[in-house]
Amino acid sequence: MPDYQWPDPAHRTLIGKRTPRVDSPEKVSGQARYTYDVKRPGMLYGKMVRSPYAHCKIVSIDTSAAEKMPGVKAIEIVQKPGATIPWAGDEVVGVAAIDEATAEDAARAIQVKYQKLPHLVSDAEPPAGAAENQGPLSLDDLGDMLQNQVPERQIVALIQEYGISFKPTEEDIKEAKDEGVPDSVIEAARNATVHPEAANKTKSNYIKAATQSQGDVDKAFAEADAASEGFYGAPVIVHCCMEAHGSTSEWTDPDHLFVHMSTQNVSGIAGQMAEPLKLPAANIRVHQDHVGGGFGSKFSPDRWGIVTAQLSKKADGKPVRMMLERDSELEVAGARPSAYARVKVGAKKDGTLVAWQSHSWGTGGPGGGGMPPIPYCFSIPNQHKEHTAIRNNIGPARAWRAPNHPQACVLTMSALDDLAAKLNMDPYEFFLKNLELTRLSKIYRDEFPIAAEMMGWKEKWHPRGQNISGNIARGVGLSLHTWGGRGHASDCDLSIHPDGSVDIKMGTQDIGTGTRTCIAVVAADALGLQATDIKLYIGDTLYPPSGGSGGSTTPGGVSSSTRRAVVDARDALFAKVAPALNVQPDDLEARDGSVRVKSDPSRSLSWKEACSKIGATPITSHGHNDQAAAKNKPDLTNSGVGGVQMAEVAVDTETGIVKVTKMVAVQDCGLVIDPKMAESSVLGALVMGISYSLFEEKIMDPTTGRMLNADMEFYRLAGLNDIPELKVHMMTGPGYDERGVIGLGEPPVISSGAAISNAVANAIGVRVGVIPLTPAKVLAALNQTQKAGA
Amino acid sequence: MRAFDYVSPTSTRQAANLLSSTWGNTEILAGGTDLLALMKEDVVTPKRLVNIKEIADLRGVKSDSSGLRIGSLTTLAEVAEDAGVREKYPAFAEAVREAASPQIRNMATVGGNLCQRPRCWYFRNGLGLLPKDESGKELVEEGDNRYHAILGNDGPARFVSPSTIVPVLIAYGAKVRLEGPKGKRELPLEKFYVIPKTDRDREHDLLPNEIVTEVVIPAANGWKVAHYEIRQKAAFDWPLAVAAVALKMDGSSVQAARVVLGHVAPTPWPSPQAEAALKGQPANEDSAKKAADAALANAKPLSQNAYKVQLARVAVKRAILKAAGGAA
Amino acid sequence: MHDDESVLKTPEEPMEERSGVSRRDFLKISTIAAAVPVVSGPKMVLAAGEQVPVRGPGKVPMTFNVNGKAYKASLEPRVTLLDALRDSLDITGAKRVCDKAECGACTVLLDDKPVYACSMLAIEGQGKKITTVEALMENGKLHPIQQAFVDNDASQCGFCTPGFVVACKAMLDKHPDPTPDDLLHELSGNICRCGTYAGIRGAIAQAARKGA
Prior knowledge:
The complex is a heterotrimer. By secondary structure, chain A is an alpha+beta fold. In chain A, 30% of the residues lie in helices and 24% in strands. In chain A, helix 12 packs parallel to helix 20 and helix 16 runs parallel beside helix 17. The mean pLDDT of chain A is 96. Among the domains of chain B are: 117 residues, Uridine Diphospho-n-acetylenolpyruvylglucosamine Reductase, domain 3, CATH 3.30.465.10; 103 residues, CO dehydrogenase flavoprotein, C-terminal domain (Enolase-like, domain 1, 2-Layer Sandwich), CATH 3.30.390. Chain B has 13 helices and 12 strands. Chain C contains 7 helices and 7 strands; from the N terminus they run H-H-E-E-E-E-H-E-E-E-H-H-H-H. Chain C has a 5-stranded mixed β-sheet, with helices on both faces. In chain C, strands 1-2 form a two-stranded antiparallel sheet. In chain C, helix 4 crosses helix 7. The chains are: A alpha+beta, B alpha+beta, C alpha+beta. Chains in contact: A-B, A-C, B-C. Strand 1 of chain B pairs antiparallel with strand 2 of chain C, so a sheet runs across the interface.
């Protein structure tokens, strides 16, 4: 039986050591090729005509002038007259031409008439009594919910309560399965009561999305020693990937499509393009070398990706490149739903949490969205929660790094921090006191003192508003978070060649998280080689499939499939080499570029010599990691990580400008394959966290319904000089390593908002409830206390 | 970007001749950092670009009896690194160094900085400088005006004047020189900015075929000048408020003052009220606060920008204290 | 829709490579050249008593000096330097992100100074020395700032990295031992979304020590 288990520390050669990112040299030298850089012979350039209105009906489309323009090769009407447009920037007509300028001229020459409809782009608190019951769910409702990452449980509960307004066909169900819709949702829809009459009913902008109770909340508040009430929130923000969404498509023959796409989901794209293009998925090849950021927004080919392929078809199969313009990238290619809540939370004198009550609301665009998982991390015994989903015209929501968690974290940890202040408790003690209400108390207990030491919490914390010198108020805040991160399904083909070269083929992608490095380290570790000795072929549907890079599932998936493949290949190599060294295969080990006898390392063959024993045909092996833990024997990946973050801020009380002066993160992710990559992921998440805490907000104009800051000027992203000292500690060693590999993309971005907001409250003595913590909001909060104090 | 033709005159006279006498047909291309963005957004759609970068006379910093003469094509980086500017006009050098990013400072010119168009997001979204919807509803007033004007904002103009270096130039008493088909003229820099009342008006006192040729800064002898910006990000961010202050001291009291605010009104905003409040006073926290209050006494915030009143006050106060504490 | 493909094939051969061309290469060049319609000299317009050439709005022959090589292309005046580099010369290190002078991903050196290639026209880039990230490597060896980026893991997705590398190089050329104030003013023009700033700071410190 091959020993797939992760090696113990004594037998790791690279795992857990600081291996440099294997594709760094390509990236720093400009050699790395991204989808945006792909130039195919005879390539045409695509442009999209987009709706200027947030809600409207297409009345007519006239493409005649564009058709007559020299150099215009294809025009594709995306939405026909009569179609209703649900947000500004939605796709209407695609065009392809011989160069970008011509495509732009053609797009401008296309005349579209619209009939404006009333729109809503606000996500302000719903008027009292405005929220209506969900009613029977349409196919679109379900699609929106899934897109918005509404928890499976909530969707199933709504289907069971209200039924559905359509009769699901076998084809619908098959398609849903292909798209990865959870079985429980499909099953609920199959068994649901069908109310066809509800299909045409206009739904309110405000939907009662969830009402949940547990315990006796009134009694618990009555018996609590202290209660704190507050209003908290996080607005809609966008992904703003540096590389815009887009693709280059070409028909290599009438039945075969070749797509270069900027995606987090190489293996999952063909299946999604098959149905709209009426083409077997097997006939679609998808390729990507590098991707310039995704953060959860690049799992689908998107409508523009389909249109690009259609334009290519109309242009006799010529390659068509269509990358989104920056404004569209911010308007339509990804947004994180907002979440706001009025929260009341109660505790005993000693800090023990007893009761939680919240009225929350938020929007993920036309789909509305679900209730974020509040109270976050802490399972408070008595709870009552109501959530209203706002269905509006701001554009579609997408998974944004740790979907729903950062918002839930802000709502929860701000409220708990306010309650701690009310109890005159150091939040450090308050959070520790309640750790038993979390599922990972042991991990947090390990992490809290480390974080406190790194921050200097004991020296820096003071009761609220008591460290003000001149106009600078200083404070510290903390938060904790959790995430799953089990490895996804992944397949790995590995070959050891007679000349000693090793290659791996896997249909995964490296979205900047170090996936290439992770695979190379796992393979090289088992073979006693260096990471750069492994030749990697990834990012192509020609290679065995591997899951999309979302939900921190990639490291667990690719490391597990690679480990299985490399152990099998190594064992096969040992079998070939053993006779030459007069030992049994089990007596061999691969270390330091050699294959040697464990008990007598002086008896060895160099790696090259060892591989020369393979014979003419390379050794090949295949490793598979299954989504289902039970099918992996042994299971090399795991789920459920904990992290703690602390922030220190300096607030200018005259201007309301917040500077983060230090941040620390202590994070667990099971067995760390490469601490250098892991730390970079956490550091990057802290930067992103500072950015969304201080600056980011998708700003919509109420009158025109358009996004006003669809640029990188007023959609502010933190710059190098906005980032202070950042300290990261990865939990490793006993208690962590043996859990197996767990993903890390999401968790460290969750706590930053709450930690920074709590630090600001500690500094200025008053809560700024809604991030980003802009001068306007900080000054408003300060002025309120001044008034209240006067 | 729409197609255009491109000419590169070698003299200001040629350039003026190549420019149309009506707005909209031609644009002057200097640094291009603002113009190209406006053209890509279809906010301006010239049929001809007149590239003036081949006009050698417009480049460089010269010193003569009238003070410092900065050719309009001098880049911001050249100004920030000019020894004469740094020595004699340090507050100006500082404002220039704080402007935008190094890449922009290497491209953008002083003339272009003076003539750049407002950053109002309605304007940049193609909804007009005095934006209204089809029903005549004023978009800024009804919409998101967090970055808009708090002074001089009776309407319909409610954008803020974008230059971060003009307030300090005005505080130094700078003049701008223009050349057009009808000849040359010079005007105090503050007069170069006007509040447009109709869609036909521009925010500059500039004819479509006039070219900014030079900025002249008189000798700053005896003036202590400071520039202060409040920005949310540490760098490469538009300020929320700017103040520039020049003080002439008579012993420990202020003999004369110039106070100019930026990013608060559709033009750079000199404040005679603040100047009067400072006159005869010592330059200290108390007088600076009073002057700041005076500067903002007439502020009328829109629905979402009341915080800017506070920020502008702080900017004025801090600029006064910085000027009082600093060298000329 | 007209098929006018022939008009659009532009000669993009590096001119330097024309010296010592093989016969085969020569034929290739000739074929391409023959496919290009004869570009007549520019129109002239009288201004202040002198004739001034008017270029465009159609394609104009242009020449560029990029990374020490001469290139020519036939482009409309409205094409930016960035798009000319990427789409016509296939030099794709500089990236198109914001496309309006806000993010720095397109940073190149123009006569050794960092500029945003998205915000100048290709036609303006003629007669200037243009340097992109591709030219920083020498003899297959990374430039010290590039090596420092590798050592400090200063790239994640890597899309902003070429612009950052060029901006850092320019800053270090100007301030070999940069202070925090130099970073504030001289490295403010680039944005990274993955959040590699800690790595970039480390890279600058390393390269500065080496006197890059």
